[in-house]
Amino acid sequence: MRESLVAAAFQLFVERGYEQTTVDDIVALAGVGRRSFFRYFPSKEDVVFPDHEGCLAEMTAFLRDSGPTHEPVERVCDAARLVLRMYAENPAFSVQRYRLTRKVPGLRTYELSVVWRYERALAEYLRGRFTGRPDGTLQADVIAAAVVAAHNNGLRSWLRSDGRSDATAEVDHALAHVQRAFGPDSATHGPAREPEAPDGGRDDDVVVVVSRRGAPLWRVVQEIETMLARDPD
């Protein structure tokens, strides 16, 4: 039933557009009643992201089952890879959803709220591991934000290729920067060097984000992600 509702919804979103499609349209195509729809999805927005609740629960359990021998930064990077696996299990659906969220601002806002919940789960785990460290809470929040930003960078590179590139390689490459910057060897190796452009110069694209003083770190990161996701033109 759940899969039938999602399939019906996306068929209509493609044919009519997201805003023009109603819950009544979706249940009519799926051949069920409104009550059945709301048993699975609280709103029309939720049918676009049917798998995130399960993935968030899996990530939370993965982090909860961590032991003291697990290196914290490596562990949160592995937790982020669970999200990638969710996307990679159904490339066609993931690419279709990516295209839809780019067109509908309300869905992009909803997606950012989902991303923040992943980031919060990572930060809570790291805070527990960094208890007693100077600036432990700050470190936890910064690393969690960096992991989410790196994961999303690799994920979007794969989605922009219409799922043709190697999703795992894209995300592993991005997360490697986080591990070099914040992992146990970061003091020795320092942050990852920025790769040179093909012509031997530097990529001189600059993104400026204005945020109010006192805004939470996750909000600033979300604003940066939104700016980076926009096409240059």
Please characterize this protein's 3D structure.
The chain has 233 residues and is mainly alpha-helical. It folds into 2 domains: 1-48, Arc Repressor Mutant, subunit A; 51-229, Orthogonal Bundle (Tetracycline Repressor, domain 2). It is 69% helix and 0% strand. It contains 12 helices and no strands. The chain has helices at 2-16, 23-30, 34-40, 44-48, 52-64, 72-88, 91-103, 105-129, 136-160, 167-182, 186-189, 217-229. Helix 6 runs antiparallel to helix 10.
Compact description:
With 233 residues, the chain is an all-alpha fold. It has helices at residues 2-16, 23-30, 34-40, 44-48, 52-64, 72-88, 91-103, 105-129, 136-160, 167-182, 186-189, 217-229.
* Rg calc: 19 Å
> In the CATH scheme, what's the topology name of the largest domain?
Tetracycline Repressor, domain 2
Question: What characterizes the major β-sheet?
Answer: none
Strand content: under 5%
The amount of helix comes to 55-70%
- The CATH H-level superfamily of the largest domain is Tetracycline Repressor, domain 2
Count of domains: 2
**CATH level-1 class of the largest domain:** Mainly Alpha
Mean pLDDT score = 86
